[in-house]
Every structure is written in C-alpha cells, then in structure tokens.
C-alpha cells in the first residue's frame, strides 16, 4: 500500500500549512480581494479539502459535497497572475514547515496544475 501525502504530512502540518498560507494570502495585494468571507471558515474548508486532496479521509466531501473546484471558484475572476500569486503564497507557507525538502517540492508540484485550473479570465482561458 502506497503512503499518501496526507500520511507523510500529518494533520498538524496541514493545519500549520493552512494557517501560514492564509496569513500570506490575506496580506497579498494581488489576491487578498478574492477572499472576502470569514477567514476562519475559509481556513477550515481548506483544511478539509487538503486532507482529502492529499489522500486522507474525504472530510470535505462529507461536509460540503463534491469539491467541484472550478465551479466553486467561477464567481471569482481568477487570472493566471492570481494563480501564480496563490502558488507563491503556498510555496512560502510550505517552506516554513518542519518537513523534508523533497516532500515540500512534491507537494508544491501537486498544487501547480490545480491552481492553474482555477484560472477563468485572461488570454489563455477556454
């Protein structure tokens, strides 16, 4: 049986990642405007989602239904620059975790296609 990223990262590191990531996002001039609702609610949804996304229990689906990432993000104009800013915040947050650099790199690579899939405005959008 293959070890999941969830198992390698652990719940405490996921919680730390979400906290640090949203501290950065809410201060980032490029993307802060995309996060208008309650910070604690956003963090909790992200924690549930990341648990599931990284191979842990399907906590997000159990509470909120299928993630439908692109559909849930459609009400927000998201450009490629926004996705890059999001990834920059995620890279910084990952960099603060007390985990192996190889795991940090592998996790970041997992986030790139997902972040770019959220782009719904700009030159390269369908």
Task: Write up what this structure looks like.
The mean pLDDT is 92. The protein is globular. The protein has a single domain (18-117), classed as Globin-like (Orthogonal Bundle). It has 126 residues and is mainly α. It has helices at residues 5-9, 11-25, 39-53, 59-64, 69-73, 80-95, 101-117. Helix 2 (11-25) packs across helix 6 (80-95). It contains 7 helices and no strands.
Q: Whole-number radius of gyration?
A: 14 Å
CATH fold node name: Globin-like
The low-confidence runs, each spanning 5 or more residues with pLDDT under 50, are none
Average pLDDT for all residues? 92
Features:
Globin, mainly alpha, Globin-like, single chain, 0% strand
Summarize this, please?
By secondary structure, this protein is an all-alpha fold. It has helices at 5-9, 11-25, 39-53, 59-64, 69-73, 80-95, 101-117. The chain has a single domain, classed as Globins (Globin-like).
